[in-house]
Amino acid sequence: MANSNNSELGLEIRKHLYRIGKSQKWLAEETGFSTVHVSAVINGRAKPSPEFLYKVCQALNTDIEPFIKIMFKVI
């Protein structure tokens, strides 16, 4: 089930994609996850797994720590 942390996390992923000029389809191809799953996470409809976050951060060439902080932020 999605929550506001998932939505915030999705927004952060979207910002990184925009910054490097890449699409959700590209991210799906780079991570090996389906475009449906990538879209669901980015739009806050699905909770990302640790593996998903790890692969996304590798693809985006960014540190995972800010994403972890968002996931575990107390509402």
UniProtKB/TrEMBL annotation:
SMART domains with a match to the protein in the record: HTH_XRE (SM00530)
InterPro entries in the cross-refs: Cro/C1-type_HTH, Lambda_DNA-bd_dom_sf
PROSITE patterns the UniProt entry points to: HTH_CROC1
Domain called HTH cro/C1-type: residue spans: 12-67
GO molecular function, one term: DNA binding
Stated name of the protein: HTH cro/C1-type domain-containing protein
Origin species: Aneurinibacillus danicus
